[in-house]
Amino acid sequence: MAVDNSGPFIKISSPCPNVRLVELARKPVNAFTDEFWAEYGRVFDDMATLTEDIRAVVVSSAFPKIFSAGIDFQGLSSLDGHDTEPARLGYITRRHILEFQRAISAPERCPFPVVAAVHGMVIGLGIDIIAACDIRYAASDTTFSIKEVDVGLAADIGTLAHLPKITANQSLARELAYTARPFSSAEAEKLGLVSKVIDGGREAVVREALALAKVIASKSPVAVIGTKHLLLHARDHSVAENLEYTAIWNGAMVQSQDLKEAVNAGISKSKTLPVFPPLRSVPSKL
């Protein structure tokens, strides 16, 4: 049985073996308070350390008409009451932003792939959230906005750090970040923010994302976590550095029994897919 680590703002379920569905569920519009983003980060960090055999995760909203309205400014913890001397206030604010960034970046720290399935409105922080995921699918009814400039901020939780790395059209990315104008799922696909647009709404995009997660979960977990790890390394290092690191990584990982099983299945042209054991052993119950 899966461990249910759902919290007050996030629902977690297991729709199929080795796959988790994480649903944002703070009424009415998934606006984020300090408590909400802290719970979000904790959920992913907990899943990464559990002995459960999790191999892929889908992130979506529990509400049919919206993914996230972004930050709940009224619900955020206030910095009032601290020493207002500028340097000290700046230090406290910086620490708060870093904690916020770390929570929203939690899917990137997970060893397994995380798929974002978005629909309805994806505003401000909603884009920070999906930018830290491995794969992004959008329903055709989705509307996005990098909203921060409209409230007097530069986006500071992940959007501006990730967009140059995950999108192909830098001119369009800058236009959207500078203007905060809404853009459609079709334009998000043109930007490279999403890899697939699904006709329909929440139900359709979640179903498609879960189907993808199920395929990922059927692969060797050794191969999948290695692929994610090496892709992230490649993003932040030169080609030569990544090739050297990959040689070291795979020097150990090619010893896996998974490789033998996959190769044998391919050679024999078996119609039965190989079954790969979990990365970590699950302790037996006493």
From TrEMBL:
Record-level GO cellular component terms: mitochondrion
InterPro entries: ClpP/crotonase-like_dom_sf, Ech1-like, Enoyl-CoA_hydra/iso, Enoyl-CoA_hydra_C
Pfam families, alphabetized: ECH_1
A GO molecular-function annotation: delta(3,5)-delta(2,4)-dienoyl-CoA isomerase activity
Keyword annotations from UniProtKB, A to Z: Fatty acid metabolism, Isomerase, Lipid metabolism
The protein's annotated pathway: Lipid metabolism; fatty acid beta-oxidation
Protein name: ClpP/crotonase
